[in-house]
Every structure is written in structure tokens, then in C-alpha cells.
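Subject: START domain-containing protein structure
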Amino acid sequence: MTGLRIFEELVEVDYLPRSCSRAMKAVGVVEASCEEIFELIMSMDATRFEWDCSFQYGSVVEEVDGHTAILHHILQLDWFPTFVWPRDLCYVRYWRRNDDGSYVVLFRSREHGNCGPRPGYVRAHIESGGFNISPLKPRNGKLRTQVQHLMQIDLKGWGVGYVSSFQQHCLLQMLNSVAGLREWFSQTDERGAPPRIPAMANMASAPALSKKNVMLQESSVHPTPPSFNQINAASQNSVRRDGYSDQIAEEEQEACQTKHENNVKRTASEEEPVDQIDLSCFSGNLHHDDRDNTRDCWRISDGNNFRVRSKHFCFDKSKVPAGKHLLDLVAVDWFKDTKRMDHVAKRQGCAAQVASEKGLFSVVFNLQVPGSTHYSMVFYFVTKELVPGSLLQRFVDGDDEFRNSRLKLIPSVPKGSWIVRQSVGSTPCLLGKAVDCNYIRGPKYLEVDVDIGSSTVANGVLGLVIGVITTLVVDMAFLVQANTTEELPERLIGAVRVSHIELSSAIVPKLDPDTS
């Protein structure tokens, strides 16, 4: 037995071929630091044979930047190798480190001119996959880390169509690498950073290791992997029969940082009531619908879905439900064009212009999605007036350095595949530090143009999300980070939920030539 817990996602999707497996993940605890595990996972040298029994050979096709690389990977699968052709992969791998010390490593297949099909191999396709490496509290003086390995793959070829057990068996063999990591660290006394991944000078001349040599190496350093029946039995006992089986045992879910909860259930919304704004005069091309299970629409997300810094955060690092928003979300626009769309709040008839005519103030967030077709999702938040001296007023009228150091986004994916939810995460992000933000201060509005394409990491996550956007429900909260006791507790500028967005529903906006 591997001691892993195996989960299978039971949500049916219609955008993938029938040959593609359901998403599966393995969860285990490894006695090592996040950094040590991350370094080992990133390596593709001889060390990998010692913990990954599905690995035969790997190398770099292209080093895009410090966070992104294109890799070639030959799989070592043990399912009737005499009759089944070997599989290889060409995929993009990108990673990020979160503020809590955890790491996320993501995979997705991608074609590359220097990594074409190889004779004698079937090119498998990773729909999405990766590792989530999260710190746990030490136990008996030993470091502990939770490792999740997620994978959704289409192995292609005749074996997938004719033998249903082929793909599941091979996928479980790949997920068993979590047990390999645990064994590797339990048997390793001296730990050092493994060598960097070898660069691929010439794919045609890359040495292909013989199966005999691979098996010799594995048998000498790696424990015999359990049989498929054993793994499958463990899987059947561990699979949770709901659509989003993400419940992890309490002892494995403890975070390293203190997460003290206040005994008194107070939220950041304990403020004086504000006069309501008539929302009937505002409109955007993405329609508003408060019903559940609706598609291609937006609604206001409950502020209590997000946790923000409490009044006492400076002393005990506690967080509380955010509560009521400072501003009202009045409209959402969903645009597309052949070029990036900047300063959309200047567009005649938009919600920001309507609010200005009524003496109201708007904060506009323009999330710019790059590509062959550029998309912009624009959120219009409105208030009657800014409170003089408030943190929000200082943000609106401050300089770009102050704005970049304070503008925060809290994302969440309440509905979507495991892998997308792991990719997006729910960790607050300082937008101005992560991507390029352009601030446009109008007479009665502040527009923030957020260029998601300016960050390789953000763009990589976006590449995973945009392909399955119609299957997702996404929550986003915008706020100004509070750093001092005078500024606390934090308050949301506003929050939005967008559901099952269709790319085809975006429209081309009418912009003045000098505004785009």
C-alpha cells in the first residue's frame, strides 16, 4: 500500500474528448520542507528515477523565463509494454511561490517547433496537471509538507479506446510519484539542491535510456510499486462521491502560519448605513442575474465569502469575513477587439459616464486579457462620494507607487475543476506588484487597467483558465490593503461573481481613437 489518498473528480465535462481521463489527484504528507520538495520536482536528471516510476527521460525544449519552460518528457509506463507503444509529452510548465511559502507547479500540453512527434512514440496530451506543495506544522521536530499531485491526461492511441483500464492504470502510476517523494526523503540523509534541468541542445540526438537500464536503476533505489489492484482498492476507498472532493484531513490542512480566529464573530462591515443608489439607470453588455446555475452573467458576490485583515491584525494576524462592500457594483462590460482596450471609462454612455452625470464617483477595473483577440472585462463600482481622509480616498488620489503597493485582489473559483482551482488559488494578490497596472484619474472616476499579459505567471494561469472559462464560476474581490491600526479593518471596494462566461458574447466597443 502507498499510504496515499486518491481522489477522482466526478464532474462530467463536454469540452474534452471521451478519451481524456477524469481529473485525479494523490495526496500525501512528506517529511521535508516545501523548498526541498519543489527543487526535486523541478529536476529532470537521474535523481528523478529514484522517486518517479513513470519517468524515463526529460529535457528542456525552451527556457521561456524564470517561471516558465517548455519540456519534453518520455513516460515509463508498465502496462503491457510489449504491445503498447511508449508515450511522450511536450508541455509547458510554470510555477509560482505563494506568500505562505507554498508552491504551485502547473503543466499543460503545448506544441513546439523544436519538439515534434518522434518515431516510435505516441504523443500524449496533458489537459492540465501539476503539484501543490503546502507547509504543515512540524511534528516531533520534523518538517512536514502536504503534496498534492493532480493530473488529467489523454494518453491517445488504440489502448485508450479498447482497454478502459489502460488509462486509469497509467494515471495511477504517475500519481504514485507522491509516495516516491515520501520514500526518497525518508531514505536521504544529505539533502542538497539537485542540478538544474539539462538544456536540450538537439532533440534528435537526445540519449534515450533503455528500459533495461531504467529498470535496473529503479529496482536499486526505488521500492517496488504496488500492483494496480492495490492502488485501485485504495482509490475506491478514498474517492469522495461529490463533484468537488477537496476535503483534506484536519491534521494535513494545518498551515504553518498562525490562523487565530476571534471568538467574537465581528466582520469588517460594522459601519454606519449608507444611502442606497438607484441602480436602474446603469447597464453593461454582460447581463446581471442573481439566480443560481445561470450562465454568461454576473452577480454581486457576498463579501463574507472573503476574509480580510481584522482590526487587530497587527497584533494577532487575525482575519474576519469582509462583510458589506464600500461601493456598489452597477454594471459589467465584456469587450473584445484586435488590440488592447485602454481607458474604457471615457466611452460615451458607459456606467462611469452615467454615474458622473449624476454626481457619483466610480472606481473602474478593466481586466485586460491578451491574445490574437484581446478581451476586457470591465467592472464599474459606484459610490455617492469618497470619505475625505479614508484609505480609499488616499488610494484614489495617491501616486502610482502608493497604488501599486496597496491594490489587492482576492480570487476564488467556487465552481470549476480541481486543477483550475489550484491554479487560480485564493491567496490575496497585490495587483500592482504582480502585473502592470495603469491608473487613469478622471474628474469623477478612477480607472485601473490591469494588463494580465504583462506577467508570465499570470498569463500562464490565464492560458489554463481561458480554455475552460465556460465551465467556471469565478469570484473576485477588490480592496486597498490596510497596513496600520488606523487603516484597519480592511474593507472591500467591491466583489463580483462571473458565471460560465462565453467568449462569443463579448462585443467590440465603440472607443474614441485616442482612448485605445
